[in-house]
Structure formats: C-alpha cells, structure tokens
Amino acid sequence: MNKSNKFSPEVRERAVRLVQEHRGEYPSLWAAVESIAPKIGCVPQTLLDWVKRSEVDAGARPGTTTAEEQRIKDLERENKELRRANDILRTASAFFAQAELDRKLKS
Questions:
Q1: Architecture of 1-63 per CATH?
Q2: 93, 99 Cβ separation under 8 angstroms
Q3: 20 near 26, Cβ under 8 Å?
Q4: Integer distance in angstroms from the first to the last C-alpha of the chain?
Q5: 79-106 pLDDT, tens digit each
Q6: CA–CA dist 69, 71 (Å, integer)
Q7: Which residues fall within 8 angstroms of residue 54, CB to CB, at 6 or more apart?
Q8: Residue from 11, 7, 10, 20 nearest 51 by CA
C-alpha cells in the first residue's frame, strides 16, 4: 500500500521553513503548526510530522533519519531476496543430490 504524496518536496520544505521561522511568534509548536497548516492546505498533524522529520534529519531531535530509514529498507529488501535465493539453491541442491542417489541405485 503506497501513500500518494499530495504535496511536492518543495511545498513540504516551504511549510517546514514557515513553521521554523514563525515558531517564536506562537506559544507552542502546535499553535504555530495549527496556524500555518491551513495556509499550506494540509491538516496540522501532517505538518507537525514534516517538522519533526526535518528536525530528526537535521540532528536536532533524536531518531532515525530519512537516509538511514531508506538504507535499512534497502538492506531488508536485499536480505529477503538473498534468503529466497538461498532457499531456491537449497531445494535445487537437494533435488540433484536425490537424483544422483537414484541414478547410483539403478546402476
């Protein structure tokens, strides 16, 4: 299930930048997000998620960066493919070993 990205990366960056620039004008991060989100055309929770992701990527907030998440995802995909290949090779090896045994018994 792929999420469709309604907002381009440029719009996301602009929205996050707006929140960061005007953060001091509001009593809390959430108040800033609630004020700016309708101007961008998204719900406040979405904008808050973008701001948090940006802070993690910048190292200002603890967590796994976007680049690290992508690397983990790629490695997990590669690991899955290698496991599948190993299963295929193991099955083929067993098949040919059995065929060799059958050939020796018939001789």
A1: Orthogonal Bundle (1.10)
A2: no
A3: no
A4: 55
A5: 999 999 999 999 999 998 888 877 766 6
A6: 5
A7: 16, 20
A8: 20
